[in-house]
Structures are given as structure tokens and as C-alpha cells.
Specification:
Helices cover 81% and strands 0% of the residues. By secondary structure, the protein is mostly helical. The radius of gyration is 18 Å and the shape is globular.
Length: 280
Amino acid sequence: MIYILLAVAFSVTVSVLLKLARRANIDIVQAVATNYIMAAGLAMWLLGATPQAALEADARVPLILLGILLPAIFVMLARSVSSAGIVRTDVAQRLSLFLSLAAAFLLFGEALVPLKILGIVLALVAVACILWRKERVERAGWLAPLAVFAGFGAIDICFKLIAQAHAPFPSALLASFLIALVLCWIAVIVRAVTRQASLSPRSIGFGVVLGAANFANILFYIRGHQALPNDPSLVFASMNLGVVLLGALTGALAFREKLSWLNWAGLAVAVAAIGVMTIA
């Protein structure tokens, strides 16, 4: 379980870094672009991944989509953490599994059983309760977490399509990192040439730390599945529940994020939803 605990810790660390990025005047596009250099290098070094293996599996379309979605969702994560807070963002991210569960029977032919229906209903209730805010907020205060919710669901569906093509997961991950890397650095260069944002050593350095934390989250999650090959539901539940609970504690205690009784009720429903979807 140590691997899962580390994966949870690094997942929340990514959210904390994104929360601090705005305060440190970090250019998030440059940080995300650098993050993918770090993540791709670590994937080759620690996982022995090669993009060739993923391309040979004939999964080009979902890989390209993944390469586009990954940096887009990273930028949206930063906006969500900044506008809605760590608690709402982490819960929105974890409850996105509702979308992949819905896709499982709508797109991949899995049987729809009562527990899955209950899990989906609970997830929708949890999202509504957690995103509800009594005070008037800017559109980004609820739109960004919803984009995180939808984006991570789409990413998970892409991974399912890649798995169906029998592409090795580490190689698929590396291939998507490389696509994201190229797209992000095109954006960085265009913004620099048009003088929208000059290159910032601070933002690039921040991206190195962000990339290390992002990859560590992925690495330890993979190691957790490898250490408990016969208990995937335990790994899945521990990871998702751990991130929701640690994210809630971090947001409320470290950053003084205000949550209403309805938000806290939504957190409880989210825990129940993840539990139901794990055993479904």
C-alpha cells in the first residue's frame, strides 16, 4: 500500500503546485510544456517506454487525442485550482470515472447493472453538491471544475481505446507525452515570438518540479497495481478515495478553502460513489 499512499501524495502535490503557480507568477503554458519534457524523459528511463511500440499497435487516433487532451486538461486544472480550489478540483477529477463507467456500457458493450446505475447517480449528485457555492462566483468558479470532470473522463476513454488496440501502457503514455510536448512548445514559441509571454527561467524551473511530481504520481500508481495484481479494485478505490480525502484536508487546512455543509455532504456522497463504482 506504500505505493498507493505515495501516488495519492504526489497527485495532491500536483494540485498544490498549481495552486502556488499563480502566486509565484508562473507562466502555466511554459511550466506545462517543460513538465512534458521531464515526464517523457522519466518514462523512457524508469519505464523503458518507446513510442514505437504504441504506434505499432495501431492506436494513432486515440494517441493524438490524448496528446491534445493532456496539456489542455493540465491548463484547465491550473485554472480550476485557482478559481474553485483544490477540494473541488480533486473531487471533479476523481469523479470523472463516472464518465468512463458510462462509456463502458454505452461504447464498449459492458452490461449495465443496478450498482453501476447507483454509482452514476451518486456521482452526479456529488458533483452538483461540491460545485454549489452560496456566494456569487465568476463563471470559471464552476465551469473550470466541470471541464476537469469532462476532460479526465475523455482521457480515460482514450486510454481504454488504446488498451483495446493492445498498446503497452508505458509506451502509449510516452507517445502521448511526446505529442503533448511538441504542441505545448509550439504554443510557447508562438507566444514568445508574438511577445505575449517571454521565456521565463522561473516558469521552466517550476515545470521541472511539476513534471517530476506528475510522473511520480503515475509511476507509483502503476507500481501499486503491479504490487497488488489480484486486487485492482483495492488499488482503484484506495487511490481515488485517498486523493479526495487528502485533497479536502489540504484545501481546507492549508489554503483555508471555505466549504458549506452541502459541499461537505457532497464529499461524503463522492466517497460513497467511488466505493459503489469500485465494487460494481
